[in-house]
Amino acid sequence: MKPLAIVGIVIVALLLLGGTSLVSTSNSIIAQDAVCEQMVGQVNSALQRRLDLIPNLVETVKGYASHEKETLEGVIKARASATQIKLDASTLSDPDKLRQFNQAQGQLSAALGKLMVVSERYPDLKADAHFSDLMAQLEGTENRIKIERDNYNRAVTDLNVKIRTFPGSLVNSIMAHVKERQVFQAEEAAKTAPKVNFGAAPAPTAAPAAGEAK
């Protein structure tokens, strides 16, 4: 075989290998982005479960502590705000949108924390079986939200590393065109929220006397 033919075969083989590598890397990036998108759905599912629990929770507390108007209205308002910003790909690729989303979720967590503190003042409320069931569901939901957010953050970190480093960065710019995603940060408003262990059963305190200042 002539040397020129050998060189041609080598060049073709290298091009085929290079093309295969490019396609493989592009597919890997796209697949990882799809994993992230699936995990967004799981985070949304957990957040929606919390939103669904709140109306029943507020109504139950209202039955024993209707005069805690400010706290109850605070939860309702925070819930309404939390529904205004949707968690989707556009939010998770925009730092400002994600910051607004986290702020709304943090304010909801803070409002729920205040509601839990209020509930400690009413032994009859704490003894209510429906309230106890809601608390157990809410605690489980809060744990699920944290787990899903952490899972999403790990998947996004893997994706971002792929599209920031060579050869992924080159392949993504040419073929995949996947946008970098933002990770969830700690909710600032939730950092100062009262810390309540939903499953704890501290000694009950006496309910406020009639006419006592709140």
Overall description:
Helix 1 runs antiparallel to helix 2, helix 1 (about 5-65) crosses helix 7 (about 170-175) and helix 2 runs antiparallel to helix 4 (about 95-120). With about 210 residues, the chain is mostly helical. It has helices spanning about 5-65, 70-80, 90, 95-120, 125, 130-165, 170-175, 190. It is rod-shaped, with a radius of gyration of 26 Å. The model is unreliable at about 195-214 (pLDDT under 50). The longest helix is centred in the first third of the chain and has 63 residues, at about 5-65. Helices cover about 75% and strands about 0% of the residues. It has one domain: LemA-like domain (de novo design (two linked rop proteins), Up-down Bundle), CATH 1.20.1440.20. The N and C termini lie far apart (about 95 Å). It contains 8 helices and no strands.
Defining key terms:
de novo design (two linked rop proteins); 8 helices; disordered C terminus
What is the helix/strand order? Answer: HHHHHHHH
Strand content range: under 5%
CATH topology: de novo design (two linked rop proteins)
The CATH architecture would be: Up-down Bundle
What's the total helix number? Answer: 8
**What CATH first level would be assigned?**
Mainly Alpha
Write down the domain tally.
Answer: 1
Task: Summarize model confidence as the mean pLDDT.
Answer: 84
Q: What is the CA–CA distance across the termini?
A: 97 Å
Main β-sheet, in a few words? none
Shape: rod-shaped
Q: Could you list the spans in which at least 5 consecutive residues all have pLDDT below 50?
A: 193-214
Find the CATH superfamily.
LemA-like domain
